[in-house]
Amino acid sequence: MKINKQILITGITGFVGQNLSVYLADDFDVKGITRKGYNGLTYEAFLEGSTPYDVMIHLAGKAHDLKKTSNDNEYYEVNFELTKKLYNQFLQSEAKQFIYISSVKAVVDSIDGILTEDAISNPVSVYGKSKRMAEDYILANLPETKKVYILRPCMIHGPLNKGNLNLLFGLVQKGFPWPLGAFNNQRSFLSVENLCFVIKELLIQETILSGVYNIADDDSISTNELVTLISKSQNKKVRILSLPKNMIVSIAKAGDFLRLPLNLERLHKLTESFVVCNLKIKQAINKPFPVSAKDGLLKTFTSFKM
Fold it and tell me: For the NAD-dependent epimerase/dehydratase domain, which residue ranges apply (predicted)?
């Protein structure tokens, strides 16, 4: 029997939106909205009309462009201005819940230690700054009679979507050895199933307080462990080389000038640590996540088995 709540998901045709709509479909009345229109509903039509809903889950946004080809204004128009318009509509409506999917990048682009909700915000990228602007607007206009949640996920992945793990996956899948075994790091990831689980619990448990919540799997994973999981998923032998760090750094420095596949920026991204604390949301929900970090990643990588 369905719960009597009408859920409106922005960006429903995206990776998270597709997974979430299926995850919620058995229990809620789910509707969608996109820029180009979903079942005839665009953002313009929605903002000008009177579409009924009880909860808005705002997924739509301009993703972080790793190739750096996007115009800065695109981030502010989509991640801030659109969010502002949709949130204002929510405040004027009869809806009772607003769930905004932000990002840990709205706080920092890199961190020493573990990222908590209390960390001082200092985003560097335009993506992170635009997400933070949206957060600030929402937090400055919190209603007393409605529930508002800002979720900050780390890198999201799931079947048929590796997130930003494409380079690493491609290297292992082609049989090349991983040459950075000497670098020890830890990173947090987020299975899309765990994200959907958290959102559903926020819809069901009406006593959870409004606020900002980091979202990450329970355990962090090293890049060497990632290589092992990818190898296992593709039935390939694990090949990890522990070359001297000084030699790798020298090659990366040369890569900055010779345009090699490995440069200092890419080396940093491949070997940096970024650990996210999920204690606040776990305590609020008071239930275990359905998928472990390793099982979730293995499920993702196995979905790409050739």
Answer: 7-216
